[in-house]
Amino acid sequence: DGGITQSPKYLFRKEGQNVTLSCEQNLNHDAMYWYRQDPGQGLRLIYYSQIVNDFQKGDIAEGYSVSREKKESFPLTVTSAQKNPTAFYLCASSGPPIFQGTAPNTIYFGEGSWLTVV
Amino acid sequence: QKEVEQDPGPLSVPEGAIVSLNCTYSNSAFQYFMWYRQYSRKGPELLMYTYSSGNKEDGRFTAQVDKSSKYISLFIRDSQPSDSATYLCAMSGAGNNRKLIWGLGTSLAVNP
Fold it and tell me: What average pLDDT does this structure show over A43-71?
């Protein structure tokens, strides 16, 4: 089945350690995104990529890094510079933007990864 | 002021009730209005979308957009316990201005 796979589902990290969250999609989507979700703060965009080997910072990129070497993969590294990394992380993807018509550019989400700093 | 405002709730209703979920926004350039449903510890999934103004119905769900008031609503008729989830509104402009702007989400509990 087509979809977005995030791993691991749950991850514990010690302070000072980097950790990488995996995101793989088989929807043949060009665009991929990483969001962070905290209680009371909704979804906040960390990084996004519209094409292989290119990515842009979102609203809260500090302390995070990404790569986009393959169309299917968009891993997120949470570095030790991220001051409050404990959160629910969501990877998403979308197809090519439709510049005309009544349908939006639908974003599809993975199941999420829970990161806890201990 | 945030571009999109959504009351986080929580909202608790008895089974069978009509539920009204709402968002307000400030950017008149928004053209696409979406509702996502998110079950606990899962990723959000698109429930419905509306382009520009008007209503859209899908089974027990109705989405409304009032661009003059910058106000959107999602109505759930005959609510079921399986509707218990967080509902997020999201909006975007058209053309090259398609960045999604999200509401905080409203937590809904439908009690049997």
Answer: 95
